[in-house]
Amino acid sequence: MRRAQVADRLATVFFWLAGLTILAILAWFLFYVLARGLPHLTWKFLTSPPKSVEAGGGIAPQLFNSFYILLLSLIFSVPVGVGAGIYLSEYARPSRLTHLIRLSAESLASVPSIVLGLFGMVIFVNILGLGFTIIGGALTLALLNLPLLVRVTEEALRAVPQSYREASLALGATKWQTIRKVVLPAALPGLLTGVTLTSGRALGETAVLIFTAGTSTSRYLFDFNPLAAGETLAVHLWYVKSNPIVPDADTIAAASAALLVLVVLVCNFLIGIPGRVLHQRNTGNARKNKR
Amino acid sequence: MTEKGTSSPGMSRALFYDRYVRYIFIASAFLLSITILFIVLFISRDGLKTFTQVKLTEFFFSTEWDPANNKFGAGVFIFGSFAVTLIALLVGGPLGLAAAVFMAKIAPSWMRAILRPATDLFVAIPSVVYGWIGLSVFVPFIRDKVGGSGYGLLAAGIILGIMILPTVITISEDSLRSLPKTLEEASLALGATRWQTIRRVLIPAAGPGILTAFILAMARAIGETMAVQMVIGNLPRLPASLVSPTATLTSNIVLEMGNAPYGSVWSNALFAMALVLLLLSLILILLVRRIARREEEVR
Q1: For an interface test with A, which of B46, B77, B128, B187 has the most A Cβ atoms less than 10 Å from its Cβ?
Q2: pLDDT in tens, chain A (291 residues)
Q3: Which of A83, A188, A255, B49 is close enough to B268 for a disulfide, judged by CB 3.0 to 4.6 Å?
Q4: DSSP string covering A3-25, please?
Q5: Is A70 near chain B, with CB under 8 Å?
Q6: Are residues B46 and B64 in the same domain?
Q7: For the whole model, what pTM was predicted?
Q8: Do the chains contact at B133 and A115, CB–CB below 8 Å?
Q9: Nearest CA in chain A to B18
Q10: What's the CA gap between A113 and B160, in Å, rounded?
Q11: Rounded to a whole number, what is the distance in Å from the CA of B270 to chain A's nearest CA?
C-alpha cells in the first residue's frame, strides 16, 4: 500500500507538470512573438505600402486585403452557414438526408486547407480565368468558414430552451415566426461569438489564399476592386520569409506575426471566451455540449 | 397549424412564408454536400490524369521526384507526411493526454479556468505564426544543439506536436469527463489510489474517446501546411536523419504549385498528392464516425 501511495503522489506531481508545461509553452510563444514584433509595429509600418527591394516598407495593403477578404468571405458564408445551422437545429429529423448533411459538414471541416486552396485555384484561376483575385480568395475562404459557422449556429440555437419555442407556438406563431422572433434573438450572443471566432481563424489563414488571392497586391492602396490581387497579412508573413528579397524581411515578419497574434488575442478576449465552440471544430463531430 | 379557418391576409402570408422558408434552409444545408462533392470531383479529375502518364507504383513508391526529367515519384513526400505526423503524435500525444487527465480529474477549478482559454488560444494562433516561431526558434536551436541544418522532420514534428495539443486535450478531456461518476467511485471505494483509478479504470474506459482525439490530431497534423513548409527544409529526398531537410505532401504542393503550368503532368502530379491528402482526411473522419457509432451501440 505504501508504494501505491508514493506512486499516487508522483503521478499527481507529473500531471501538474503536464498542465504547467502547456501554460508555459503558450506563455513563452506569446511573449516571444510580441517581444520580437511589437517594437517594429509602428504607425508608419501599418500605413505605408511595401517596398519591393529596399528596406522600410509597410503592410498597409496587406492589412486592408486581410479585412476586405474576411468581410467578403463572411458575406458569402454567414447566410449559408446560419441557414444550414437553422436547418440542422430546428428542422432536421433523423433521416438519410440529415445524416448526409452532417457527414458533409464534418468532411468539409476536415479537408486540409491547402486542398481547399487548390480547389479554389482550379475554379477561379483556371476555369473562370480570373487570375489571383480578392473575390476568388474570399469565396474559397468562405468554404473554410462554412462548416465552423454551421456548427456554432447549431449549438447556439440548441442552447435556447425548448420552452421558448413552445410558448411561441402556443401563442399561435408559425414555426418561421418562432425562429425569427424568438429563437434567433435569444441565440444572437452565441452566434456573434461564433462569427468572431470564425473571423479570427480566417484572418490567420494562409494556405487557402496563396493560390487564390495570390502573393501580390494592387498598385492602389485601398483597392476595393474584387478582381485585384489580394495578398493578405498572413500570406505576406510567409512570403517575405520564404522569398527574402527585402533586406528587412525579418523585422517585417516579426511585426506581422505580432500583429496577427494581437488580432487573435482581441478576438479571443474582448469578445468573450467561447470555449466549447472552438473545441467542437477540432472534434469534428457534432456532439452536443455536455456542460 | 392547418390553413383551414385562417381568413386574415396576414395569417395566410405567415403560413406561406412558413411553408417555403424551410426550403431555403434545406438548400443551404444541401450546399455543404454539393461543395464537398465538387471538391472531391475537381481534385480527382486533375489528380487522376497523372496516372495516364505516370505509373501508379512509380507515384506511390518511387522516391525520385524530378519534374524537369519527368520523374514523378511521390514516395519521399508520402513518407515525410507520415513521419512528421508520427513525431507530432509522439510529442503532442502523451503531453496532451496528461494535460487532459489533469484538467478532467486533478486540476482545481481556478487552474481549469486558466487552462481552458489557454487551450483555445493554441487553436487560434495562425499556423503561419507557428511556422515563423519554428523558423526563428526551433530551427536555430536544433542546429546548435542537435546538429545538421536544423531543418527537417524533428523541427516540423515538434511544431506540429504543439499544434495538435488542443485537439488531443479537449477531446480526451471531454471523454474522461463524460464517464459515469460511479466508475471512479467504485474504484476508489475498493481502496485504489487516484493514480490507480486513472490508469486502470478511467483511461481504459475513455479509450474510444482518446482514440478519436488521436485520430483527429493525426488528421490535423497530416494536412497542416504552412508551419511544416517553413521548417521542413524543402528538399525532395529521403532524409538521412531527423535533422536533414526533406519534404511532405503539403509542403511540396505549396512550394511547386506556383511554378507548375496548369494541365502539365507536373501540375497533375501535385493534384494527385492533394487527392491523397483529401482521401486520407476523409478516411480518418469515417473512422471517427465508426468509433462514435460503436460507442452509441454499447451504451
Answers
A1: B128
A2: 578 888 888 888 999 999 999 999 999 999 999 999 888 888 887 888 777 777 777 788 888 888 899 999 999 999 999 999 998 888 888 888 888 888 898 899 889 999 999 999 999 888 888 888 888 889 999 999 999 999 889 888 988 888 888 888 888 888 888 888 888 888 888 888 888 888 888 888 888 998 888 777 766 677 777 777 778 888 888 888 887 777 788 888 888 899 999 988 887 776 655 444 444 444 444 444 443
A3: B49
A4: HHHHHHHHHHHHHHHHHHHHHHH
A5: no
A6: no
A7: 0.88
A8: no
A9: A176
A10: 15
A11: 10
Same domain assignment for residues B44 and B138 = no
Say how many domains are in chain B.
2
d(CA B276, CA B43): 10
Contact status, residue A264 vs residue A200, Cβ threshold 8 Å: yes
Q: CA nearest B93 in A: which residue?
A: A18
Residues A275, B206, B160, B260, Cα dihedral to 10°: -100
Domain finish residue from B17, B34, B52: B52
**Is B4 within the bounds of a domain?**
no
Nearest CA-CA distance, residue A176 and chain B, Å: 5
Which among A112, A235, A282 has CB closest to B281?
A112
Beta strands in B122-240 (DSSP E): none
Return d(Cα A209, Cα A72) in angstroms, integer.
13
Domain boundaries, chain A: 41-283
Using an 8 Å CB-CB cutoff, list chain B residues near A33.
129, 132-133
Cβ–Cβ gap A107/B282 under 8 Å: yes
Let me know if residue B199 belongs to a domain.
Answer: yes
Tell me: do B239 and B165 sit in the same domain: yes
- Mean pLDDT, chain B, whole residue set: 87
Question: What is the three-class DSSP state of A213?
Answer: coil
CA distance B162 to A113: 19
What would the pLDDT profile of B33-47 be if each residue is shown by its tens digit? 999 999 999 999 988
C-alpha cell at B199: 490508469
Domain A41-283, what fold?
A: MetI-like fold (1.10.3720)
Strand positions, DSSP E, B45-173: 65-66, 71-72
Chain B residues with CB inside 8 Å of A175's CB?
Answer: 1, 18, 22
Is ipTM > 0.90 here?
no
Beta bridge partners of B65: B72
> How confident is the model at residue B282, as a pLDDT?
92
Q: For residue B237, give its domain range.
A: 60-298
CA B187, CA A281: separation in Å to the nearest integer? 34
pLDDT over 90 percentage in chain B: 38
According to DSSP, the residues that pair with B71 across neighbouring strands are B66
Grid cell locating A148: 465552423
**How far is Cα B260 from Cα B264, in angstroms, rounded to an integer?**
7
Residues B104-152 pLDDT 10s? 888 888 888 888 888 888 888 999 999 999 999 999 998 888 877 888 8
Q: A9 CA to chain B: closest CA distance, Å?
A: 8
Name the minimum distance, in Å, from the CA of B147 to any CA of chain A.
22
Q: Does A238 touch chain B if contact means CB atoms closer than 8 Å?
A: yes
Answer whether residue B78 shows pLDDT above 60.
Answer: yes
Q: Which residues of A are less than 8 Å from B165 in CB distance? A: 22, 25
